[in-house]
């Protein structure tokens, strides 16, 4: 049977009663299955008629907010007391970090008690009289606005926030203390870097060591057309701080005919055309590693920033913000390449240059 078109396919008993009439915009209920049934009669709660029950509810809510405050204090205490590597056994979870367990437990209790207190307050003490409101146009008339404000004031009065000072004060206390948990955790962001990012392991007299062979480099080891990666003497591959130090100190070394070097400072800081630049891209810090022998351009594989090593490693293409820092080098009395100081500017992404 088709459902499209008209009512004629719908049986009579499923249609609204022809006897339903509209009066003052309200459909009268007589025989009308779609009529508004209205609100059920309001039933008073025990707290509405028994002040002792209301007091009990008030104390319960206050207790929950107080427990929340204590849990926040316990959170902060746990953070201070438990060492990060302490493991405890908790049934049925098993072995867990004491710090993580206590932080999670106390923060969970603090938040739960605020929520439970608010719910209990709303269910037992705030007004539960159901109110039906007619839909109205979006632009509110002045009288409507006045009514809203009056309703708001009435709601505030009925919530008893002014009268029930115990609840109000403990709630404000709990809400004010919970954010302290987040403030304490800021400590985990660690100490400020201070000027550590501005310095590397390079210093005057430190030898340039081939990163592949771990041998100190001599000028004759660096031939035109080759790209050599170097690290500072004394930085061992298995050192605990190897990654953090090499991330700042990594060097790439190339030899260019001195007459091909356009930048005067670059020439002054080189040794017989051997130049040493930071290997860390000034865009977001990838290792620059693709060398084009004829043009002496190096390319960062991450976002294709290209640097001209004959011209102070300035950026000739790509998103990098500034040239690769150059390390001033020379040769010591034993014939090895050595640094003549640290980099004179921060290596890596341009962000640090602004710090
Ligand atoms: S990190 Fe080198 S171009 Fe983006």
From TrEMBL:
Pfam families: QcrA_N, Rieske. The keyword Oxidoreductase applies. Its main location: membrane. It comes from the Bacteria. The chain crosses the membrane at residues 61-81, 101-122. This is Cytochrome bc1 complex Rieske iron-sulfur subunit. Iron-sulfur subunit of the cytochrome bc1 complex, an essential component of the respiratory electron transport chain required for ATP synthesis. The bc1 complex catalyzes the oxidation of menaquinol and the reduction of cytochrome c in the respiratory chain. The bc1 complex operates through a Q-cycle mechanism that couples electron transfer to generation of the proton gradient that drives ATP synthesis. Residues 243-338 form the Rieske domain. Keywords: 2Fe-2S, Cell membrane, Disulfide bond, Electron transport, Iron, Iron-sulfur, Membrane, Metal-binding, Oxidoreductase, Respiratory chain, Transmembrane, Transmembrane helix, Transport. It is found in: Cell membrane. The keyword Membrane applies. Residues 1-44 are annotated as: Disordered. CDD domains: Rieske (cd03467). Residues 9-26 have a biased composition (Basic and acidic residues). InterPro entries: QcrA_N, Rieske_2Fe-2S, Rieske_2Fe-2S_sf, Rieske_Fe-S_prot. It is a multi-pass membrane protein. Belongs to the Rieske iron-sulfur protein family.
